[in-house]
Design goal:
By secondary structure, the protein is α+β, with helices and mostly antiparallel strands. The chain has helices at 37-59, 64-77, and strands at residues 4-9, 15-20, 34-36, 85-92. The protein has a 4-stranded antiparallel β-sheet with strand order 2-1-4-3. Strand 1 and strand 2 (15-20) form a beta hairpin. The radius of gyration is 15 Å and the shape is globular. This is Repeat protein (TIGR04042 family).
Length: 105
């Protein structure tokens, strides 16, 4: 199962690397996007819960590292106003490029 790291800049300028057990984080966050602290926390929680469930489905137990990532995010988020901006600087690895569609014959 490929894991992912997402790097964010908090309203105070601090930069944090967050870890996800799955590339599913790409379904919830966009590289270069800015979210409010509240929205970023909600989206991150959804992504990390989904990633943890994928681990559970595959290995039979939840991903504790995913829970630790969410704890880190929630602790940082609590130090900022809910409407303050959080910027997603990087999602790594990027999703594989889509294969070009074959031209009709």
């Amino acid at each position: 199962m490929p894991e992912a790291t997402f790097t964010v800049r908090w309203p105070d300028g601090a930069v944090t690397d967050c870890w996800s057990p799955s590339l599913v984080v790409h379904d919830h966050l966009d590289e270069g996007a800015t979210y409010t602290v509240e929205e970023f926390t909600r989206r991150s929680a959804a992504a990390l819960a989904e990633g943890s469930e994928r681990v559970r489905a595959r290995y039979g137990f939840a991903c504790t590292a995913s829970a630790a990532s969410l704890d880190l995010i929630e602790v940082r988020a609590a130090t900022h106003a809910p409407d303050a901006p959080v910027e997603v600087l990087r999602l790594f690895p990027p999703l594989p490029a889509s294969l070009p569609e074959e031209a009709p014959r």
